[in-house]
User: What shape does this take?
Amino acid sequence: MLEYDDRVAVAVSGGKDSLTLLNILVKLEGRFPKSRLIAVSIDEGIDGYRDEALELARLACERLGIEQVVVSYRDLFGVTTDEIARANLGKTPCAYCGVFRRKAINKAAGMVGATKIATAHNLDDEVQTVLLNMMHGDPMRIVRTGPVLKDPRGKFLPRIKPLSDVPEKEIVLYAYLNGFEFQSVECPHGHEALRNDIRAFLNQMEQKHPGSKFTLQRSADRLRELFANSSPPSELHECEQCGDPTPHELCEACVMLGTIVV
Ligand code: SF4
Ligand code: ZN
Assistant: This one.
């Protein structure tokens, strides 16, 4: 996932996963003098939730001596997740928040001259997403995503998920044992209902049939191998609105922004 001279933008939210990832990467970085870590944090504009997490992220970066860059939805998109939630747009706030976060992390990573983006998705997140994609009728998305994403066209920064094989429980344990102060409050907008149901189902499966999550992850890996070269990557143009690379006239975030009236 990493090269000896990478400049890695680590997405740090202030939750247990991202603080664990940051601490582990700091240890690794110590062995590679030419590498560099920069924390990027996104302020989605969620009152009483994100402010606390951002402060915890700031303190962790300060303690570890890591530069931190914060970018906000308000500055980038002119709107916050709270405002989107209040506007009742028909889709869940997470649908917007997720797309905007990807774009915001890309922007922040570009600002700091990163060569790679590292995010703290764990095994549970990954297998939930595999099943979610199946439930949404979009199995090819499983093939297009995964622990390591490299754009053969070189338009997007490579994305890595170093914790994608680590169960959430082990991350919680690691974070507690190391005495990390992490955010424990849930987002007031909640997660997608379907993801919640899938999480509960997978936890039940894991309890009854230990190893289920790993097996599902390995199945997804096999699909990725099988389909790796099956279709050429789509051609990319510049988004007419923001100039970012997209296979369509407008990127997903700009399409969404066009539908928001707050
Ligand atoms: Fe955004 Fe949804 Fe996550 Fe809250 S739960 S931070 S609204 S994606
Ligand atoms: Zn755009």
